[in-house]
Amino acid sequence: MTLAGLTPHRLVQALDRFNAAHPWDHNAHYHRWILRQLPRRFGSALDVGSGTGDLARLLATRADEVRGVDSDPAITAQARALTPEPTAASFAVADALTDLPAGPHDVITCVATLHHLPFTEALDTFREHMAPGGILVVVGLYRPRTVTDHLLGAGAVLPNAALGWLKNRGRAAAPPTSMTARTRPADMAFPDIAAEAHTVLPGARLRRRLFWRYTLTWRRP
After folding, report:
1. How many CB atoms lie within 10 A of CB 208?
2. Fewest CB atoms less than 10 Å from the CB: which of 6, 56, 83, 104?
3. What residue stretches are annotated with the Methyltransferase domain (predicted)?
4. pTM score, two decimals?
């Protein structure tokens, strides 16, 4: 049966099967974008929810020191094992609200982690750990609620399949190492995220993105 002959329900099922066979890391897709928001060189960086350490290792190409923190001991051990020596990146098990390295940090990043935390309290904590002039970059998940949200989600379905095909060179594949930990769904809608972020971080820039993500950037005065 061709795609044209599929019902909407069967089309969704077919795409789900295709995506499962050609997985790719939606969070890592934004890592290069994150680097474009940052200076060419900076001192201290903190990656909150560092997972297997992919972003922290990228930050280490520009930073004097990168601290990656995650609440999962197993995935933190994996990040250490995947990180060659010598490197500017180090990893620790830490609570994102109570145990962050003191800093102050010139850069703080947080990818697909903020929706696991009390939103306002987490942004307050990040702000307190930033150096003057420091940059916060968040890639987060939101709960679709508006027509715009649903249209953007629908528009991402085919590009998602196409990128899965290209990144896996047309072959079926196992999920990347960075995708082995499951992320729970977000419970905040984008308008609520934006409203609270602007209260805590005046001047923050937020934008809905493809692949069911949003971005937030903020520079501390």
Report:
1. 18
2. 6
3. 46-134
4. 0.80
Distance CA 133, CA 12 (A): 45
31: three-class secondary structure by DSSP = helix
Is there a contact between 77 and 177 (Cβ–Cβ < 8 Å)? no
CATH number given to 28-142+185-219: 3.40.50.150
| pLDDT (tens digit per residue) in 96-137 | 999 999 889 999 999 999 999 999 999 999 999 999 999 999
| Domain ranges (residues) in the chain | 3-25+143-179, 28-142+185-219
Q: Where are the alpha helices (DSSP H) in the chain?
A: 8-21, 31-36, 54-59, 73-82, 119-128, 147-167, 190-200
Residues sharing a CB contact under 8 Å with residue 1, sequence separation 6 or more, in sequence order? none
Structure tokens at 195: 């409203």
- Token output for 81: 């094992």
